[in-house]
Amino acid sequence: MKCPFCGYLDSKVLDSRHNDDKTAIRRRRECEKCHRRFTTYEKIESIPLMVIKKDGNTESYDRHKIEQGILQACYKRHVTAETIEKAVDEIENEIFALGETEVKSSTIGEIVMDKIKEVDQVAYVRFASVYRQFQDVDTFIEEIKALQ
After folding, report:
1. Mean pLDDT score of the chain, rounded to an integer?
2. Domains of the chain: which residue ranges?
3. Residue partners of 117: CB distance under 8 A and separation at least 6
4. Of 44, 61, 114, 130, which is the most exposed, with the fewest CB atoms less than 10 Å away?
């Protein structure tokens, strides 16, 4: 496994364990050259999932986009990286459990919104403001009232 820090190709596995729902193996590794540690995940390769965007175009599903959206929503909040990783895993599992080869981006967005609401309410409002394209303060107030 290539080290993400120095690019060296050899690393040793320090620890392996299944994730909570037994769909992946988490491996803690150490680079043989720089001795920095990093985590990898091993998952069963599934049928490629296509996402149907609002404009009708399709693109390949990208887990990284969900991670980035949640990371931005949780910026400067007391949400651990482990909590975010777990949330993304759960979101991904829910998406793939739909059993579809094509999923609307709006469906994915709603799944993400539901999960963020469980993680952090401020992050939820931040994510919702971008996802639902809030145009004014009244829309923010309505969303906050719905949370209460």
Report:
1. 90
2. 1-45, 46-147
3. 124, 147
4. 44
Structure tokens that stand for 84 in this block: 């975010």
Q: Dihedrals φ, ψ of 61, to 5°?
A: -60, 135
Question: Residue 103 to residues 5, 66, 69, 92, 128: CA-CA distances in angstroms?
Answer: 35, 14, 18, 12, 20
Sheet architecture: strand order including 24-31: 11-18, 24-31, 37-43
pLDDT tens for each residue of 5-31: 999 999 999 999 988 777 789 999 999
User: What residues contact residue 104 under an 8 Å CB cut-off, 6+ apart?
Assistant: 51, 52
Neighbours of 13 (CB within 10 A): 11
CA dist 29 → 16, 38, 42, 59, 124 (Å): 9, 5, 13, 32, 33
pLDDT digits (tens, 9 = 90+) for 47-99: 789 999 999 999 999 999 999 999 999 999 999 999 999 999 999 999 988 98
Backbone conformation region of residue 140, classed left if phi is above 0, alpha if psi is from -120 to 50, else beta: alpha
Strands 50-52, 102-104: pairing kind: parallel
Under the banding of pLDDT at 50, 70 and 90, the label for residue 46 is low
- As given in the structure block, the two tokens for residue 16 are 């392996």
